[in-house]
Amino acid sequence: MTRLAKPLSDIAEHYDVIVVGSGYGGGVSASRLARAGKRVAVLERGREVPTGEFPSRFPEMRAEMRVTGKHVRLGKENALFDIRLGEDMHVIVGCGLGGGSLINAGVALRPDDRVFADTIWPSQISKDGLLDEGYQRARQWLAPMSDPKAAEQTKFQSLAKAAETFDAKPIASTVAISFEDRTNAAGIHQPACTRCGDCCGGCNVGAKNTVALSYLPDAARHGAQLFTDAKVSHITQADGGGWQVHLANVNLRQPDQQQSGQHKDLPTDIKVSCTTVILSAGTLGSTEILLRSRAHGLNLSNKLGERFSANGDIIAFGYGAKLPVNAIGVSHPIKEGLTPIGATVTGQLEINDPDDLSRQLCIQEGALPSSLAPVLPVMFVPNGRLLGALKSLIRGVYKGPLASLQTFFAVSHDSASGCFHLGNDDRLKLSWVNAKDEPAYKILDEKLGQLVRSVGGSYVKNPLAGSVMGHQPATAHPLGGCGIGHNASDGVVDHKARVFNQADGQSTTVHDGLYVIDGSIIPRSLGVNPLLTITALAERAMIHFAAEHKLSFNTEPYEAPSPIPAST
Fold this sequence. Notes:
Radius of gyration: 22 Å
Number of helices: 12
CATH superfamily: FAD/NAD(P)-binding domain
Helix content: 10-25%
Structural class: alpha/beta
CATH topology: FAD/NAD(P)-binding domain
Distance between the termini: 5 Å
Number of domains: 1
Number of strands: 27
Shape: globular
Largest sheet: 9 strands, mixed
């Protein structure tokens, strides 16, 4: 597939629609509005990483990490992995054309119906029938499926053995991955998954159904212009109506002064006008842009920045299990002498509670990317595991003690009590006092500890505890900050994703032509991986957008004269 992005120097002065961000919400919005005949521009802070060019060795992976925190600022601004170290919680997000879809595990699940029964959602979300339609369209374009060979994978079998302690059985996870050769809805030929386990490092096979292989090429085919290295700082209302989007070229920014912790940027040097702005820069990005926009005079809800949720996330490990696990990626092409291990997530254990949704959780077996293999022994040196780490350094991670390393990705429910604000350096800060004491984490620690001990292992919540990571929880599923609400007194956007204009305490007035469509509008934890719900809410918002603006578009798959290869 040819590259989608254009050089930022080609950007025009005005568009009908500017979409900020290119993840699930941005991809859906760009595709649907381009199909409706709108002149669309997509602005992505990261760079384009074609299939086959994701990091496959540790030096490449290290170069694709951006780490920022109170006392650290390392790595290039458009690195693929954006790691935010917070005083209360750490957040890991993807940065690139395709957003988080590039580096997630692709797990696509619909939440328990009780999630949407929560009165925090406007009633229209569950009652107008369009959410179901949104999920249907999302499934059509992301094509989630279960691995037909899930039960053959060793890490699935190890989870099954451990789950016996709960008298339970795992099921095959539904993931946005192609397990057989196919032509997808965007007309792109995707080869079958090789089960190399490198999904979270970036799929070099082309089998993962990312936004970069689905919605974005469809948007480009219908006339949308996609730009990378374009970091939006804020938006302002244009004289006479419409919007001004203020952005800078990431490649022209001053390098960070890493030792002193100072950060100096060039002034915002590009302004582009449009009739409609759709913020889809993710929970961190969209919230930060609106907070800056409010500082520049934009009238917004006082709830902006509130109700941040980590989706009850835990990433944890079991070390020293008395059974083989094989949960470290084997690269593509698969390294000589190694065998397939499955997708990053192949199976999950669902622990349901019909009486208390907050105690419900989903535990998924996982795999770490092959590009991290050389550093894994170093990660597990603390906490008395030096001997095992040294054995792994000598024998390799695929034969030593790390061959029995269990990786768990778990999601549950938290209180969504985090709050964003702008710091003195004009950058996003997260506050969540006592986040580590959320009841969800205690429940997960208890269940994961039981699983690991049942197969003779030791539960390791964070192998880097005591280092720069500290003991704070970490999430790869940040939600909230621009939550959907009934009005401006309890939300930032309405059920159609239109941004409230806070005229008074009970205002339902919205800004004409300003939308937020991404995970930031989800006002509570989901208890499942959020990608399918974000996509469904975006599809639903586009249905409302089309009705409101008297537009029409179809969502049928593109019938390519000949399938386009996923990689060049």
